[in-house]
Specification:
The complex is a heterodimer of chains A (197) and B (195). With 197 residues, chain A is α/β, with parallel strands linked by helices. Chain A contains four helices and six strands, in the order H-E-H-E-E-H-E-E-H-E. The chains are: A alpha/beta (197), B alpha+beta (195).
């Protein structure tokens, strides 16, 4: 009786392990089939939000860093880079700030429940001819510890994670606008309300 | 049989322990407050014209490590940052597209202070946090490299120094827009979150 129970437990564990490996393989396939595109990171568009210049710069720089780490793109270009004009398969990453609450590190340290720095940005991956490949609304918050600028780092990480987890089409094919959000993503990625059709 | 229940906090040992904890918290509080006030008092408030100032590179200046303290200086037509004991990295001032000045308030003391505050009894750490912050100026630069690619970098300076440094950069040929005043206001720490 004990033996059969042990065997069934072992079988259950084996099935769970196989499911985990299969999930990992599918993610790897998505990532490895990705590096056909190159990406150019545009300057942040503050929109109607009064966002400090340091925040705009920090979002831009952190995003260039994070996208480079994902290995999802052949090359990551900065805004205005002349080398990007020679690249055929280029996506342009545009970001528009939608919400920004500056918060306060001191308030966070004193109260632990208020003073959060909150940043919400709509990010779009578009082709040269303006076709939207991916559109998402991403948050970057600092709720407990860390300076206000840390929100930009969290935001950039979430944007990069969202792009990594989505499946982008092969560059030469006709590319319908879609957003390939994987359910169960650990980051808070909210599909845009005005998402591309 | 005349035994009466004595509350635990009335027992000699517990009472002594509470008094000692309170004393320790008070000493810790006074020490942290004095430290924070000394740091605030030591920061320069006059804005003389610097060509070489102490700065912390937060991010973006190509070749310089993030969160590194060093010297930010203007050498002829170049802006250079040198981390203590390391070779300097520099860019041409003419490549600077815009310079922004802002303000930040930060908790001082780093990890040690954070741990100390967490360990302080009776919420003493929170009281310390009220005083243990320091105001800084931020100097944000946008510049382009040889390929025309846009870079951004942020430096943290002592309060009152960023404006003078920005003016000096402008005098040396950096492009400076007038939007920095707006940025300065929005970058300042907001005390009222309900707006």
């Amino acid at each position: 009786m004990k033996t059969s129970k042990g065997i069934s437990l072992f079988g259950f564990a084996a099935v769970i392990m196989m499911m985990g490996i299969a999930a990992k393989c599918s993610t790897t396939t998505d990532s490895s089939s990705g590096p056909q595109w190159s990406v150019q990171v545009d300057k942040v568009d503050p929109g109607d939000v009064n966002l400090a210049a340091s925040f705009q710069i920090a979002i831009y720089e952190n995003l260039v860093d994070e996208l480079g780490k994902t290995k999802r793109f052949k090359q990551v270009f900065r805004d205005g880079d002349r080398n990007a004009s020679a690249v055929s398969d280029l996506l342009i990453l545009k970001r528009t700030v939608q919400k920004y609450a500056p918060g306060s590190e001191t308030q966070r340290a004193v109260t632990t429940f208020s003073g959060a720095t909150k940043l919400t940005v709509r990010s779009q991956l578009v082709t040269r001819d303006g076709q939207v490949i991916l559109e998402r609304t991403v948050d970057g918050n600092v709720r407990f510890m860390g300076g206000n600028l840390r929100a930009t780092h969290n935001l950039a990480r979430n944007v990069a994670k969202g792009i990594t987890q989505s499946s982008l089409q092969v560059p030469s094919q006709s590319v319908p606008a879609q957003s390939g959000q994987r359910s169960g993503a650990s980051t808070k990625l909210v599909r845009s309300q005005s998402g591309a059709s | 049989m005349n035994h009466t229940d004595i509350p635990w906090y009335r027992t000699p040992n517990a009472s002594l322990l509470i008094r000692r904890s309170a004393l320790a918290a008070a000493i810790l509080l006074i020490w942290y407050t004095a430290l924070a006030m000394a740091q605030n008092a030591s920061q320069p408030t006059n804005s003389n014209t610097p060509s070489s100032i102490r700065a912390t590179h937060l991010l973006g200046f190509e070749g310089a490590p993030s969160n590194a303290s060093g010297t930010l200086s203007i050498q002829d037509d170049s802006l250079q940052f040198q981390k203590n004991g390391k070779p300097a990295v520099q860019i041409k001032i003419a490549s600077v597209q815009d310079v922004f000045v802002g303000e930040q308030s930060r908790q001082v003391g780093g990890t040690a202070m954070t741990l100390g505050k967490a360990a302080a009894p009776f919420g003493g750490g929170r009281v310390v946090s009220l005083f243990a912050h320091k105001n800084y100026d931020t100097l944000s630069l946008e510049y382009v490299d040889a390929n025309g690619a846009l870079h951004g970098s942020i430096f943290e300076l002592d309060k009152g120094q960023a404006e003078a440094f920005r003016n000096e950069l402008a005098a040396k040929g950096a492009h400076v827009s007038n939007s920095d005043q707006q940025a300065k206001q929005s970058n300042a720490e907001v005390r009222n979150e309900n707006k």
